[in-house]
Amino acid sequence: MDTNILMIVLTVIPILIIGGFLGIVFDRRQRTKKLQQKFGPEYDHALQELGNKQEAEKELTARIDHVKALEIHPISEEDANLFTSKWQTIQAEFVDDPLNAVQEADQLIGEVMTAKGYPVKDFEQQAADISVDYPALLTDYRGLHLIAVMERDETVSTEEMRQAMIHGRNLFEKLMQQDAYDEHMDEHDEHEEIEEMENSR
Length: 201
Known about the structure:
Number of helices: 10
Radius of gyration: 23 Å
Largest sheet: none
Shape: elongated
Number of strands: 0
């Protein structure tokens, strides 16, 4: 082989290797940034729960894939009226029995999710799905559910239950909105972009 050609090959190959490595690093950082922006505090929660970045990002990406495959749809007008009436009744009951009201609110949110097309198997699955479309509301939803599963002899203040109801109402109203469905559909392109970064690793 000609000496000049050999020198060119020996020069170009390391550059290509380094360039490829830097590209992978850049893609991973971009993927991490997008997941952090999308999930907010839930990114840190997943990192703490799973112990390392790779597993946390794998879990969050799996959540996106799961929700993307669901047939989420707007709530019918009939169901919307029924759910709104139920929520108003629950709020009125809070004065006399706050813990029962919180428990009913938690159950109603599950019913609304079912009506929209989310598979409500257990709370952890509900929370995972909520984290994809409504990440800013997930921490408060966990707080509501934590109180809802308490026994009556456990200590929880009326103010804590009132705050839980307020947080529950925020999620309830968001689930009921038509624009929430539109946001879910608009995010599909973002989900695909994160998936592409995952596949490029």
